[in-house]
Design brief:
Layout: H1 3-22, H2 28-38, E1 43-47, E2 50-53, H3 54-70, E3 78-82, H4 87-99, E4 102-105, H5 112-122, E5 126-129, H6 131-134, H7 138-144, E6 149-152, H8 155-162, E7 178-183, E8 193-197, H9 198-211, E9 226-229, H10 241-246, E10 250-252, H11 259-269, E11 273-276, H12 278-286, E12 300-303, H13 310-320, E13 324-328, E14 338-340, H14 355-358, E15 363-364, E16 369-373, E17 386-391, E18 399-400, E19 410-411, E20 414-423, E21 429-434, E22 439-441, E23 444-446, H15 448-455, E24 461-469, E25 472-479, H16 489-503, E26 512-515, H17 529-546, H18 554-563
Parallel strand pairs: 1-10, 3-4, 3-5, 4-7, 5-6, 9-10, 9-11, 11-12, 12-13, 25-26
Antiparallel strand pairs: 1-2, 7-8, 8-18, 13-14, 14-15, 16-17, 17-20, 19-20, 20-21, 22-23, 24-25
Helix pairs in contact: 1-9, 2-3, 3-4
Length: about 575
């Protein structure tokens, strides 16, 4: 029997055991209580404050839950947080799972105005905040919502816990009760909240258990996983916490998501599993010190929140081996919708799979339906590009507080993802970008990934982003470390243009290529296309406005200045 075959058998058995163990839980609170009881002395969380055992987390979260109840919080009440990514976020999640309150964790990277607008829309009963983030709005919050109890991180938070003894809540919680509000990223407008039930959280965990590879890798002797969250808790990583708790994992929470911080934590805590965004993985690949980092403990790298360029994934596989997995999903239709397993990342010889496979989001997950449809919502045949719509038991039921947006998000029971893509002959889904980001050049539609994925194959390119400027397609790229000090950027631009000319069909070639120093990114480490578009628009405007000044004759230059 080949090693890969044995590994797959072990993984399927472990997945079966995990699904069987999940059957005993009716709510997320049941799972958390089990973890606290079963893993007591094991380290549960590592954050900026230090290391906490499962027993420590039980004590703190039960104190927090009891303090909330003593302050009048009841099942179904809304608790809003706007905090840095630290262990207090996790404590609050565990506390509200215990007492039945609904936790709304607002993204750290959003603006104070966005946070204030969310508070006005949601009207919570309690607000946990960080003074460094909320200083400009906290007076307005207290004035507008005098009934909301505001608790600041630090001394006030610790005193709130210390005033009560830890105790289990006596509140009855049903599977269909709401447990949390999750927010969209806000990349296309004000972040919108979506409610999740206890039942749906456990169902997501069961679906993950069917897809996620649990065994294999270099460090199979480890008694339990150490999981590093390379995303904010308010993003994709929040959904992985129950999985970590059920397996008795140690969860490491970084202070930020830069390569030096993440790699030092991997070495210090012998991290076995890490969740990363594609751009963070690209940062790691491009780090000139990368071969000096000790990443030998890693046996799983799960990437998501955006599509990973096939060329960069190929490079990562050749460096770290077949330890990568990815899933596709969104807040409206939670992952996994599709899954590309570790085994599918390589071919029969162990070499990286083809670019066609690595450029996909994988095969459709169990119990999920995916269609690619045209504007009339008619299903398209495989290979044809259209809108991606999905049907999944993890689909949302509507936006909390935004009912006017619900009709546009559904079509006859299918969730409209807002993504464009196609399904290939092997039933793998390929995501080509958001519909709103499609570049229209005359009658031609160009989907960003069609160009960006090719650009990533050029040796000098680190990041690539295609946007529309007026009626043209403009590609912005940043450079890899070895090319950043290139003196002749015009010559390098021509090299990149020549590469694209060779590897792209004529109708997909960008009108202009720009080399820029830094690609704008969000706090979720996604490219901010709207900001890039504004940046390039400004650059294009300045070039157009001042082009007449670029004359060789000083007298003509003077006349031109007078004209302007």
């Amino acid at each position: 029997m080949r090693t890969n075959d044995y590994t797959m058998i072990v993984e399927k058995f472990q997945s079966w055991i995990l699904r069987r163990s999940l059957a005993r839980f009716q709510t997320a609170r049941d799972l958390v209580r089990f973890a606290f009881r079963f893993y007591g002395k094991r380290i549960a969380v590592v954050d900026r404050r230090g290391a906490f055992t499962y027993r420590d987390m039980a004590q703190r979260s039960l104190q927090l839950s009891a303090a909330m109840e003593d302050s009048g919080i009841k099942k179904g009440d809304l608790v809003f947080t706007w905090l840095p990514e630290t262990g207090e976020q996790l404590e609050l999640r565990l506390a509200t799972l215990e007492n039945g309150a609904i936790l709304a964790m607002f993204h750290q990277g959003q603006t104070p105005d966005a946070a204030l607008q969310a508070l006005r829309r949601l009207k919570p009963k309690m607000f946990f905040h960080d003074n460094g983030m909320s200083g400009s709005i906290i007076d307005a919050v207290k004035t507008e919502f005098p009934q909301v109890q505001c608790i600041a991180l630090g001394v006030e938070y610790e005193n709130f816990l210390a005033d009560v003894a830890a105790r289990r809540s006596q509140t009855a919680i049903r599977p269909q009760d709401y447990s949390a509000l999750q927010f969209t990223s806000g990349s296309t407008g004000q972040p919108k909240a979506i409610a999740v039930t206890h039942e749906k959280q456990l169902l997501q965990l069961r679906m993950w258990a069917q897809e996620l590879s649990l065994g294999g890798g270099a460090n199979t002797a480890k008694t339990h996983d150490v999981v590093l969250l390379g995303f904010p808790l308010t993003g994709l990583c929040g959904g992985m916490l129950l999985s970590a708790l059920l397996s008795g994992s140690t969860v490491v929470l970084p202070t930020d998501y830069t390569v030096p911080v993440l790699t030092s934590l991997i070495r210090r805590w012998r991290v076995t599993s890490v969740l990363l965004s594609p751009l963070t993985l690209i940062d790691l690949l491009d780090d000139p010190q990368r071969d000096l980092y000790d990443l030998s403990s890693l046996r799983h790298v799960i990437y998501g929140a955006d599509m990973m360029p096939a060329a960069k994934l190929d490079e990562a596989l050749r460096w770290l081996g077949p330890i990568f997995q990815q899933g596709y999903g969104s807040v409206e239709a939670m992952p996994p919708l599709t899954w590309l397993s570790a085994n599918e990342h390589v071919d029969g010889s162990g070499a990286p799979a083809s670019k066609e496979v690595l450029g996909s989001a994988g095969r459709v997950a169990a119990d999920v339906g995916i269609r690619v449809v045209n504007e009339a919502k008619r299903k398209l045949h495989d290979g044809h590009i259209g809108q991606i719509v999905v049907k999944t038991p993890l689909a949302f039921t509507g936006y909390w507080g935004y009912p006017e947006l619900n009709d546009a998000a559904f079509y006859r029971g299918w969730v409209i993802t807002g993504d464009m893509g196609y399904v290939d002959a092997h039933e793998r889904l390929h995501v080509l970008g958001r519909r709103v980001d499609t570049v229209h050049r005359g009658a031609q539609a160009i989907y960003p990934r069609q160009v960006e994925d090719v650009a990533h194959g050029q040796a000098a390119v680190r990041d690539a982003c295609l946007v529309q400027i007026n009626d043209e397609a403009h590609l912005a790229v940043t450079l890899r470390h070895a090319w950043r000090k290139t003196a002749d950027r015009d010559a390098l631009t021509r090299e990149i243009e020549s590469y694209l000319h060779q590897h792209l069909a004529s109708e997909l070639r960008p009108d202009r290529v720009h080399i820029i120093d830094v690609m704008p990114r969000s706090f979720l480490n996604q490219t901010l296309r709207s900001e890039l578009r504004e940046q390039l628009l400004q650059q294009t405007w300045e070039t157009t406005q001042f082009a007449p000044l670029l004359v060789s004759n000083p007298q003509e230059q003077e006349i031109a200045l007078e004209t302007v």
